[in-house]
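#structure-requests
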Amino acid sequence: MTRRELREHIFRLLFRRDFYSEEEMKEQETFYLEALEAPSEKDAAYIREKTERILEKVPELDAAIDAHATGWSVKRMAKAELTIMRLAVYEMKYDDDVPVSVAINEAVELAKRYGGDHAPSFVNGVLAKLS
């Protein structure tokens, strides 16, 4: 899988976080990975591990997003946009393999695909303040 495909799968798993309990997320990971068309062991491990690392840091990620989303709180944000920003902020702050500009660009692309009409500009604006 390409990095973009891996990132999209991580986004899809992270999106489930707001709809399932912490205990159910392990099961959701398993269901999701089983539904993929034969991912390699390496890809499946990468998706699972990065998703879990991001989930561990959600309070920190949300605090960073809250601090830079002028006039918005994470509680009021659309779930897709919030999830995209959580993934991007994690990559910007904790993933040395992903340049900040790439994390922002990929987040905007995800927002175009999964967010509302104003999602790309909103995501870009918040993340630009964080960079």
